[in-house]
Amino acid sequence: MTVDLWVWGAFLGLILLLLALDLFVFHREAHAVSVREAAVWSVIWIALGLAFGAVIGLWQGADAAGQYLAGYLIEKSLSVDNIFVFAVIFSYFAVPAAYQHRVLFWGVLGAIVFRAIFIVAGVALLNLFHWIIYVFGAFLVFTGIRLAMHRAEEVHPERNRALLLLRRVLPITPRYHGQALLVAQDGRLLATPLLAVLVVVETSDIMFAIDSIPAIFAVTRDPFLVFTSNAFAILGLRSLYFVLAGMMRRFVYLQLGLGVLLVFVGVKMLLSDIYHVPTWLSLTGIAAIIGVSVLASLLAPPRPVAELSTAPPASETDGVASTVPPLPAQTPAVGTSDEETGHARPPTSRPVGEE
User: Fold this and answer.
1) Three-state DSSP class for 276?
2) N or C: which end of the chain has fewer CB within 10 A?
3) From the centroid of its chain, how far is CA 166?
4) Model confidence over 26-42: pLDDT tens digits?
5) What is the pTM assigned to this prediction?
6) How far apart are CA 106 and CA 100, in angstroms?
7) What pLDDT, in 10s, does the model give residues 100-150?
8) Residue 38 in contact with residue 45, Cβ under 8 Å?
9) Which residues contact 122 (CB under 8 A, 6 or more apart)?
10) Domain ranges of the chain
11) Which stretch of DSSP H or E encloses residue 188?
């Protein structure tokens, strides 16, 4: 479908407006997000995503709306797998509960930017080389089988290469400094652990995008539908995290369901030149796979897993003195020794931009 530039501009303006309202109005003050608050916001984000699908239907017809909804369901279901990884990252860095939403906010903004780049590159490749569709399809089938047959791999945030690169560029303070990502200390620019967390979250999300973008190309190759379905699915990821993070061990068949989903869309892509699967059938199949995996997980007894440590309560993490576990290749701290914590106590520090 043909989309005018002003429509693209209007949609990007809408996304920026929603993000600005979320950051500067509804979450201006750092606070621990409760499950109830997160559930309300999850409903709002899902309602906005479905409402946009209705707009697509009125504007471009039922088939386009079905493609949008199929892409939205794929991205939404695959993004649930991110939640476990985010929980591990937040646990490893002992991120205070009050600061987790801010990390996810910047993570979502970065995810939208990187997905836009991937979508543009994917569309260009498909337009230039038709055979790329078979590469995408085979990759999705391989990834789906691997995901379905293997247990979840352990996540090691300390081995993240982007984090190691950050450490070479900027020293990282041993303490959190509120929601600041950078601080000026004794005339030096330092990164806070919150920036380190953001780097790990962002790079982890990029790896997930390698699966999700080709998967959506299996149901629609229209760049506007691919991008908008991705954007609305990702916007609700922050609230969904606070709802589901403590329940992930209940979804024992989620990994199997996501594997089957990737195989389904991969086969659809491989057969696209032989048989065109109707949009309604794709949407039904995707919804059925997700629904069955979730229902089976809720009916099955929870699989015993090692409990993740949680971040300290908000009452224990206010201020700038929250400490974190030693980071890999920790740069010697700046300042005097703190006998009680074993960390350096920076004598003078302030967030960048503050006097």
Assistant:
1) coil
2) C
3) 20
4) 877 778 888 888 899 99
5) 0.78
6) 10
7) 888 988 888 888 999 999 999 999 998 898 899 999 999 989 988 988 887
8) no
9) 136, 213, 214, 217, 226
10) 5-156+202-307
11) strand 188-191
